Amino acid sequence: MQSLFKCRSSTLSNVGLANLFIVYIVWSSTYLAIRVALEEGSGLSPLMMGFIRMFLAGAILIGFAVFQRHRIRLTVREWLILIPSSILLWVLSNGLLMWSEQYANSGFAALVVATTPIIVAFLDSLLLRRTPSRLLIGSLFLSFCGLAVLMAPSLMEGNTTEFTAGLALLLCAFSWSCGSVFQNRNPLSLPFTVIAGYQHLIAGCAYGLLVLVFHEPLPHPSTHAWLALVYLILFGSVLAYTAFVTALSLLPINIAMTYAYVNPVLALLLGWWLLSEPITWWTLLGAAMVILGVIGVFRDRSRLPQLEKR
Predict the structure, then answer these.
(1) Is the pTM of the predicted complex or chain greater than 0.85?
(2) Around Cβ 218, how many Cβ atoms within 10 Å?
(3) What burial class does residue 165 get, using C-beta atoms within 10 Å of its C-beta: 0-12 exposed, 13-18 middle, 19+ buried?
(4) Quick one: how many helices (H) and strands (E) in the chain?
(5) What is the mean pLDDT of each run of 10 residues along the chain (310 residues)?
(6) Rounded to whole angstroms, how far apart are CA atoms 158 and 118?
(7) Interhelix angle for 281-309 vs 106-113, to 10°?
(8) How far apart are CA 150 and CA 169, in angstroms?
(9) Within 68-91, where are the H helices?
């Protein structure tokens, strides 16, 4: 089996690689932007931030779809698929991520969320009633051991808040995995901008309802919070999401999906560089275990087509 990293550069699309580079940089930095937007005294709460970000990003994406003259009128079936996927991906998962980053470092959050591909692969095996391979089980075990290493310092220091944030991040990864599997098993014949736009708008409406239910105060964002929020809307939700779909259409899947183990490393470095988040031996060991587990999953998935042909 060829290595995930083996691919002649002459066979790769330069446009695809450029879009993948955007995904590397922007998605890695979104964890840092969320941390900045929700820092103490920022004037934003997770629910209000989710409402503003999702609603405006959705409006931009739907506006772009209208400009491209795509069909934006949905059928009942399309609504029944988009609503639960939006709740799982952008309300539960993204909401847990935002809440957690009030108490956990951005690099730590990125590493925990990096387990998503492993959970997706495991859920997919269960739904297909396929016995998980030894490599998949080993990758899952290695990554969860890595998470235990990452959370060990907070336990030893008695920092229950940070430990709780770690558990919330794990639920965040699980929710995103469930949403990804659900969406994959219920494909829609709609342009990407329409799907992403409606998902963001649905999530924005859900956040707006939660804001009313919990009587959230009106936002008074600081300058840093506004800049972080605008960055998340324009770059995190619109540019990078579109770039990922473009990269996925122009590059081999094993190349496009390398973001899953590049992003947490870059997020860790960005948090250390820009926010002075500490990187300890515990962090390095846990990060290595999580990323090796993710690489193991991609190796396992790349073997499936070969095994199914036998």
Answers:
(1) yes
(2) 7
(3) buried
(4) 14, 0
(5) 41 83 94 95 94 96 95 96 96 96 94 91 85 87 93 85 92 94 90 92 97 92 95 94 83 78 92 93 94 88 56
(6) 29
(7) 20
(8) 12
(9) 76-86
